[in-house]
C-alpha cells in the first residue's frame, strides 16, 4: 500500500473524461502499484454543471481555472477538445508547473510546437497518446520503442467513421449516402460529419505522426487532404474485382531528406494487413528500416479505449513526478523540409467512360505515354454507351498524372474521367 498520493484534475467530463473518471476509480489499486502513488480525482471542469450525469463526480465545477490554478492538482488532463479555451488552460497549467495529458489532436496538430516548448521551458511533461488512434498505443512506440530505428513510412486508417462507411459500402454494396446515414444512426458519425468524411480529423493525426516519426515540423494545414465523399459503389466494385479494397489512409513518408504527408482514399491490395481493418477499427502500419513492418490495431475512439491511453499517460507523468527525473524535452530540434504534393510518386487507378470504337485504347495510352506515365494493367468493362476503361499505372509523379488527366479530359474518345484514386501498399 503506497502512502503517496497525486491529484488529477480534469478539463472536460464528456465521452473521454467520463472514461478517465471510471478508470481512475475502477483500476485504482493497479494504478497505485504501477505509478507509485494513489491517483486521486480532483476538480473536474465541465461547461454545464447542472446537467444530469451517469457518473458521480464529487468536485464538478463550471470554472476551469479551479483546475489549472488549484495548487493541490498535480496533473491536469485536458479532454474538452477544440482550440480555445483548451490552449489557454493548458498554457496556464504548464505555467503553474503542472504536467498535462491531452487527447486533443486538433490542438496538438496545430499548436503543439508552442505547447511543447512551454512544457520544456517549465520542466514539465505534455503527453498526448490518445490524440492519435484513441486507445491504440502509437505515440510512445514511435517516440520510445522505435527510437533506435529509422521509420520510412507510416500508413494509417486513422478515422473510425470513414472506415465504417467504407466497410458498409464494400460489404453491403451501399452507396456513400446510405452508409453515412447508417453511421449517423449508430452514433459513429456526427450530425455534421465534415471533419471525418472530408479527412480533416485524419489529417490532424497524420500531421502528428509525421512530426514524431521524422522529427519534422508538420502541422495539420501542411497535409494534402481528400475525403471519401467522391468514392462510389462502382469504384469499390471495380477495386474488388482487381483485388483491392478502398480505405481512407493517412500517409507520412520521408525520403531524400523531405517529408510528405497526405490523406486520401486509396486502393489497398486485399493481401495487405490494412485491408482487413474493418468497421470502426483503426490501425497504424509502420515501415521501419531495421525492424521491417509493424501494425498497431484496435479501437481508435470510444470512452474507455481512449481513456486507457489517457490514463496510461497519467501513470507515465506520475512516475516521472515521483522519481524527480527531468522530463524529456518534447520540443526536439525539428527539420522542416516538406515535399510538395505534386512531387509525390505513387501508383494510380483511373476509370474512364469511353466511346466504344477502334483506336480508343491507343489514344488513351498515348496520353499517358506523353507524360511518362506507364500503364501497368488495363481492363475494358461494358460496351456501347457504358464502355469503360480501368487502368492501373506504375508508380508515377503526381504532377505527371495530373497533366495526363488534363489531356484525357479533352480527348474526343473519352466521355468522362469518372474516377481517379491512388494505389498504396504494393501489388494486388
Ligand atoms: N470521443 C472519442 O472517442 C475521442 C477519441 C480520441 C480523442 N478524443 C479527443 O478527446 C477530446 C474530448 O472528446 P470527447 O468526445 O470526450 O468530447 P465531449 O464528449 O464533447 O466532452 C467534452 C467535455 O468538455 C466539457 N467542455 C467543453 N467546453 C468546455 C468549456 N469551455 N469549459 C468547461 N468544460 C468544457 C464538456 O462539458 P459538458 O459535459 O458540460 O458539455 C464535456 O464534459 C477531444 O479533443 C477529442 O478530439 C476523443
List the helices and strands and how they pair.
Elements: E1 5-11, H1 15-26, H2 28-35, E2 38-45, E3 60-61, H3 65-68, E4 75-78, H4 86-95, E5 99-102, H5 105-122, E6 126-127, H6 139-145, E7 151-157, H7 160-172, H8 176-185, H9 194-197, H10 200-214, E8 224-225, H11 233-242, E9 244-255, E10 258-269, E11 281-288, E12 292-299, H12 303-323, E13 345-354, H13 360-369, E14 375-381, E15 388-393, E16 396-397, H14 398-409, E17 414-423
Parallel strand pairs: 1-2, 1-4, 2-3, 4-5, 5-6, 8-10, 10-17
Antiparallel strand pairs: 7-9, 7-11, 9-10, 11-12, 13-15, 13-16, 13-17, 14-15
Helix pairs in contact: 1-12, 4-5, 5-10, 7-8, 13-14
Characterization of the model:
- With 428 residues, this protein is an alpha/beta fold.
- It folds into 3 domains: 152 residues, NAD(P)-binding Rossmann-like Domain (Rossmann fold, 3-Layer(aba) Sandwich); 160 residues, Dihydrodipicolinate Reductase, domain 2 (2-Layer Sandwich), CATH 3.30.360.10; 83 residues, ACT domain (Alpha-Beta Plaits).
- The protein contains 14 helices and 17 strands.
- Strands 7, 8, 9, 10, 11, 12, 13, 14, 15, 16 and 17 form an 11-stranded mixed sheet that branches.
- Helix 5 links the parallel strand 5 and strand 6.
- The radius of gyration is 24 Å and the shape is elongated.
- The site of NADP nicotinamide-adenine-dinucleotide phosphate has 24 residues, from helix 1.
